[in-house]
Amino acid sequence: MTPKHTNLDRRGFLHCMAWVGTGAVWAMAGGVLKATPLGYAGDAGHLPGSLPGPQAGGLHFVQISDSHIGFDKPANPDVTATLREAVARIKASPEAPAFILHTGDLTHLSRPQEFDTLQQVLSELSLPVFYVPGEHDVIGDDGKQYLERFGRGTSGAGWHSFDKDGVHFIGLVNVVDLKAGGLGSLGREQLEWIDRDVKHLKSSTPIVIFAHIPLWSIYPEWGWGTDDSAQALGLLKRFGSVSVLNGHIHQVMQKVEGHVMFHTAMSTAFPQPAPGTAPSPGPMKVESDRLKKVLGLARVSFHDVNHPIAVTDAPLEDATGGTGGTGDVTVDNFRFDPDVRSVAAGTTITWTNRDDVPHTIVSADGAFRSPALDTGERFSHRFDEKGRFRYYCSIHPKMTARIDVA
Hints:
Helices cover 14% and strands 25% of the residues. The protein is α/β, with parallel strands linked by helices. The strands form 4 sheets. It has a 7-stranded mixed beta sheet with strand order 2-1-13-12-3-4-5, with no helix packed on it. A 6-stranded mixed beta sheet has the order 6-7-8-9-11-10, with no helix packed on it. The radius of gyration is 21 Å and the shape is globular.
């Protein structure tokens, strides 16, 4: 992958991102990222406030990111409480994850009491936790305190790897010694370590990389990218399945490029604006009743080494206020995304047209019909009865999709 330091236009940006709190399961198959709804079939053990239940068997783990313990500004005056809610979701899951990945910015100011609080909250899980630092964890001492607490047995500034159930995990550090005006950086020593680390692996081994700053160029103007990510990914080009999990930007974005799937996670502390929609990045205040809808964590599943990875983003509070997935469908590139949405009875589905041409939302049985929706316009319908409800665009009837109500 070669990062392109150019502005994303509206169409390109919307095509590669999925907004926070969608509750979608993303799976990579044949180099194509596909979305499926949070399933209720096979998920009878789903508990209110819990993570969606994974399919039986396989490897399941959870990604937490950007806890920012110590932050107390209006965007979220109690980040410890929202981290505890994330922990509660994990504990309520029908199947405990194998471990937790924390992709950085554990703390806000690298203070000892902030690290103490983070460790105390996550210790409530009684699960292994694997860390990489964010730039907020290395303030003032280049990460020495972080290494003393979380970096034992790691190399360099804290990079490390481990294996679990046939999957090779690589934790990278791209937040140390950042240059003026630059992006994240891995550095020559770490790149050489990656090369040595993967030499013994078979090409069929699934690889999961986790690091704080994204390893793809999302918005260089805000430092959202890593200068030498292409060199790191070049060392992994012989592997058929590479997944990259990042934090830093406090929102869900993903894309697939060749054999590599990229995914960024929500924060448990506060949201940040979408690239280019504000003068600068930073804590974004939202209405108090929306905050927990834009904070959350991600559950990642492998069912076997030949099965595509699935990432489920779980907001601390579902946008519907219930136990099901959120009621959002995006219309873009002449398709409905997702094309099948499973929801609980009583859910209101909202369609948003992100395409550059108008579309309509028309029920196949005549139960509902939208006006023509221009770019940015929305249409909503509440589904009170159980069943399967097919719909299409009357302007472009090849566009079809379905709502399953349980």
